[in-house]
Amino acid sequence: MTMKTNKAPSRLERFRDSFVWYSFKRDRTAQLCLAVFLCLVMAAFAAPLLAPTDPYDLRQIDIMASELPPFWIDGADEQYSLGTDAQGRDLWSIILYGTRVSLLIGFGAVILQALLGVTFGLMAGYLGGRVDAFLMRLADIQLSFSTLMVAIVVGAVVKATLGGAFYSQYAVLMLVLIIGLAEWPQYARTVRASVLAEKGKEYVDAARVMGLRSKRIMFRHVLPNTLSPIFVISTVQIANAIISEAALSFLGLGMPETHPSLGSLIKAGFDYIQSGSWWITLIPGAVLVVLVLSINLLGDWLRDVMNPRLYKG
Amino acid sequence: MALLEVSQLDVRFALRQGEVKAIRDVSFTLERGERLGIVGESGAGKSVAAFSLLNLISKPGFIAGGSVRFEGQTLNTMSERGLRKIRGNRISMIFQDPMMTLNPVLSIGEQMVECLKAHRRISSRDARAIALDKLRQVQIPSPEKRLDQYPHELSGGMRQRIIIAIALLLDPDIIIADEPTTALDVTIQAEIMALLLDLCEQHNVGLILITHDLGVVSQVTQRMLVMYAGRVIEQGPTREIINDPQHPYTQGLINALPQMATPGEKLNQIRGSMPSLSNLPSGCAFHPRCDFIRRTDGQVRPACIEQVPGFVQAGNCQAACHMVAELQEDRRLKEESQ
Amino acid sequence: MIAFLIKRLMHAVLVMFVISVLAFAIQDNLGDPIQQMVGQSVPESERDALRERLGLNDPFIVQYVRFAKNAVQGDFGYSYFYREPALGVIARHLPATLELVFAATLIIVLLSVPIGVYSAIKPRSIISRFFMGASIIGISIPVFLTAIVLIQIFSIGITVSIFPESTSWGAWLNGFFSTQGSMPSFGRGYDLVHVIGHWDTNLASWNGLKHLVLPAISLASIMLPLFIRLIRAEMMEVLQSEYVKYARAKGISMRRVYFVHALKNTMLPVITVGGVQIGTMVAYTILTETVFQWPGMGLMFLDAINRADIPLIVAYLMIVGVIFVVTNTIVDLIYGFVNPTVKLTGKPA
């Protein structure tokens, strides 16, 4: 396929010529969102370097310094720039660590969703027949039950089966599994829809006539053409997964308070909102919103630019 | 004064890459009861011309210049409210694809009655009676049943009959038909076209027929325009143009008709394809495909590349080509030598 | 239409079957009724006898059939915590949740349609841009956070002092942005009006309505932006269609083109999505009710989880399943009613 006379353009060159890069250069919102998102990701993963205290280390916590307000309010302690939570942990440090947990679960869950969803979607779309009917019916039922509901139920059952202590210990893994299992139908339906659209095209017939095995046709020929819708829904799904995690944690089915995510920070702080310590809950809340918003805006922009065929209704 | 007078119509599309001139300098007239054909390849600007007559160009398109005058009123500067009184009432349209034209969730009756009610103070019962009468005129089987049916319950041919019935609902002066049979089965194309003509003749309705099918135009219309890359390149009485085309493009179109080919030989095609409107060649837009651009000494005629040709009168026709006189001379010489 | 109905019914039965199997599997694995019925002191042999007598040693299928039979008759067993039939506990909590969902749905429908349609018709106007921006922010805020922010602003109150208090404009601005918390943020209030059976309503008294405001807004906050964006996107697509152009060519008023020709076609996909979203809304009641201590099914479910009240959890799942299936079926019927193409083919074309 490559032209022999011309040197094939490198990936970087091709990217610089692409419409995606062109419109990114012109879109201030997209640039700002990517910058904010990258800052948050880097800050979160550099948490051990940036945070003045280690919130997981009980010895560094001073219970006497609890519920201190952030620096711009009277009564703040300059040692704690964003104040402290009810246990006396430095809010700035624990938000950094919490963001890391939230991002970890968000990405992990989306990778799992994508693996499950793409595999099932390819199978359903490519093999058709009973496999298709079974998988899509399953997806229908799961979606009509709403993904958050599924996550809550699975979370509750798993927690009840394994016991609270065990669940807390492996909370990250559990949440990745739960959110991954709850949301695979989104991927499966999108992939199936674009596989069905691709399947009708001639190159797939050509590949089959040439005697390629169906597995190879699926992964080498059909899958690459479904990548752009997968890419677009992935952004939205990461945002959703982070929100789902926060929701589960808020309900007490997620990260324990000793190892909090943004959601469990909000939950823990909520108990103190009536006593006037709003920052314990609202500052992590603001970070969560900024994180999710930047991902959602990027997703919006990507969808406009790549304009893929997405599964509807 | 003619019923419809279009002069120097200029329609542009404001795209991200800059303005694209979809049609330029289109002028023609239509008399009451006259049938005019607009012919051209897809992308020549025929449909844009049709839609701009009623100012129905959707964004980012807009009418940049010229005028459309109907009974002395200028339509392209008229208010939306004023235009509404003309659309569907004095001038009605028939769209290309009957599968897409009717609203899928409204019954046929609703879509007919609403049109009558938009233009006349009329009770629903009377409107239905008129609708039923028009359905009979377009020879739909069991018309009473159709009013309560939905578009998906009808075949393409039936839908186009209904659209013709809607076009005739308010006894308009002009019907603009944009490729009215292209989307239909070949077997019913002729039937629908005959019906449309018949009804136009009966009611003395002017018809602007937009099509890429020279055969239909030659049988149906009295006058015709040939469009290429947004411009009219030849216009005049249909019979004269078909019998003695002046512009090389029109000649090419006529030679490309299957009935013009000798059996057993290849069809005569015009080489190349129409340029994109955003990237037109200099001078005459047709020059890269023109067979006559070189003089007998092999030199390219500079005017064809440098200058946009104006209309040259030839008989009752006008053709926008620098070489009309020379080509006429060539043809005369050829005939004499034979 | 008959074929369509039968198909919907089959689907509903299938969904309920899957849910009931899952619910039963949960009960079978997690709930040990013997533990709940008898104390620690009862010897193992007696427990075994009891187990045998209650049929707990029967094969899974047999037990499931027994469970399903009971469930169909409304018997989901006894709640461990409340010590009464689980269905009764749910029936007591159901009206509160339904009223909350009803109020939120009202907010969503009343706002999303006009805003979505307006921003599709005038996509470049400042108001449309504002709504689009606000809606993406709305999607990015989790329900419980919206609820917390609402509580902070309208229930606790905020005092703003970032503008200089000494100047008159500063004092005015501070006053303008400060709020007094007066809205209730806890429970359903004291002034409920009894309607019938378990149903005490919030809708008939001022105090009750006031309690409903913040929870309903919170619950609506996540769906409203979704619906605005959905309606806008669908409407814009429909406005590009040939039949809308044709309707204009017929000389019909723009109002009729927008609200009859375009809106009806816009609402078809919106209705379908709406059906799925009702399910999502029930899930979000768990969050909203937790924040506002709203004594509905969601809060009850979360408490049941924390208390490991297995029969109540199972009953909740079954009831929520029924709610989903019923609403989805109703939505499909509405869809079939609005969309004429459904009647003939038996499935949406």
TrEMBL record, chain A:
<dbReference type="InterPro" id="IPR000515">
    <property type="entry name" value="MetI-like"/>
</dbReference>
<dbReference type="Pfam" id="PF00528">
    <property type="entry name" value="BPD_transp_1"/>
</dbReference>
<keyword id="KW-0472">Membrane</keyword>
<feature type="transmembrane region" description="Helical">
    <location>
        <begin position="164"/>
        <end position="182"/>
    </location>
</feature>
<feature type="domain" description="ABC transmembrane type-1">
    <location>
        <begin position="99"/>
        <end position="299"/>
    </location>
</feature>
<keyword id="KW-0812">Transmembrane</keyword>
<dbReference type="InterPro" id="IPR050366">
    <property type="entry name" value="BP-dependent_transpt_permease"/>
</dbReference>
<dbReference type="Pfam" id="PF12911">
    <property type="entry name" value="OppC_N"/>
</dbReference>
<dbReference type="InterPro" id="IPR035906">
    <property type="entry name" value="MetI-like_sf"/>
</dbReference>
<dbReference type="GO" id="GO:0055085">
    <property type="term" value="P:transmembrane transport"/>
</dbReference>
<feature type="transmembrane region" description="Helical">
    <location>
        <begin position="138"/>
        <end position="158"/>
    </location>
</feature>
<keyword id="KW-0813">Transport</keyword>
<keyword id="KW-1133">Transmembrane helix</keyword>
<comment type="similarity">
    <text>Belongs to the binding-protein-dependent transport system permease family.</text>
</comment>
<keyword id="KW-1003">Cell membrane</keyword>
Automatic annotation (TrEMBL), chain B:
<keyword id="KW-1003">Cell membrane</keyword>
<dbReference type="InterPro" id="IPR017871">
    <property type="entry name" value="ABC_transporter-like_CS"/>
</dbReference>
<dbReference type="InterPro" id="IPR050388">
    <property type="entry name" value="ABC_Ni/Peptide_Import"/>
</dbReference>
<dbReference type="Pfam" id="PF08352">
    <property type="entry name" value="oligo_HPY"/>
</dbReference>
<keyword id="KW-0813">Transport</keyword>
<dbReference type="InterPro" id="IPR027417">
    <property type="entry name" value="P-loop_NTPase"/>
</dbReference>
<keyword id="KW-0547">Nucleotide-binding</keyword>
<dbReference type="Pfam" id="PF00005">
    <property type="entry name" value="ABC_tran"/>
</dbReference>
<keyword id="KW-0472">Membrane</keyword>
<dbReference type="InterPro" id="IPR003439">
    <property type="entry name" value="ABC_transporter-like_ATP-bd"/>
</dbReference>
<protein>
    <recommendedName>
        <fullName>ABC-type dipeptide transporter</fullName>
        <ecNumber>7.4.2.9</ecNumber>
    </recommendedName>
</protein>
<dbReference type="GO" id="GO:0055085">
    <property type="term" value="P:transmembrane transport"/>
</dbReference>
<keyword id="KW-0067">ATP-binding</keyword>
<dbReference type="GO" id="GO:0005524">
    <property type="term" value="F:ATP binding"/>
</dbReference>
<dbReference type="GO" id="GO:0015833">
    <property type="term" value="P:peptide transport"/>
</dbReference>
From TrEMBL, chain C:
<dbReference type="GO" id="GO:0055085">
    <property type="term" value="P:transmembrane transport"/>
</dbReference>
<comment type="similarity">
    <text>Belongs to the binding-protein-dependent transport system permease family.</text>
</comment>
<keyword id="KW-0813">Transport</keyword>
<dbReference type="InterPro" id="IPR045621">
    <property type="entry name" value="BPD_transp_1_N"/>
</dbReference>
<keyword id="KW-0812">Transmembrane</keyword>
<keyword id="KW-1003">Cell membrane</keyword>
<dbReference type="GO" id="GO:0005886">
    <property type="term" value="C:plasma membrane"/>
</dbReference>
<dbReference type="InterPro" id="IPR035906">
    <property type="entry name" value="MetI-like_sf"/>
</dbReference>
<feature type="transmembrane region" description="Helical">
    <location>
        <begin position="130"/>
        <end position="163"/>
    </location>
</feature>
<protein>
    <submittedName>
        <fullName>ABC transporter permease</fullName>
    </submittedName>
</protein>
<keyword id="KW-0472">Membrane</keyword>
<feature type="transmembrane region" description="Helical">
    <location>
        <begin position="314"/>
        <end position="338"/>
    </location>
</feature>
<feature type="transmembrane region" description="Helical">
    <location>
        <begin position="9"/>
        <end position="27"/>
    </location>
</feature>
<keyword id="KW-1133">Transmembrane helix</keyword>
<feature type="transmembrane region" description="Helical">
    <location>
        <begin position="100"/>
        <end position="118"/>
    </location>
</feature>
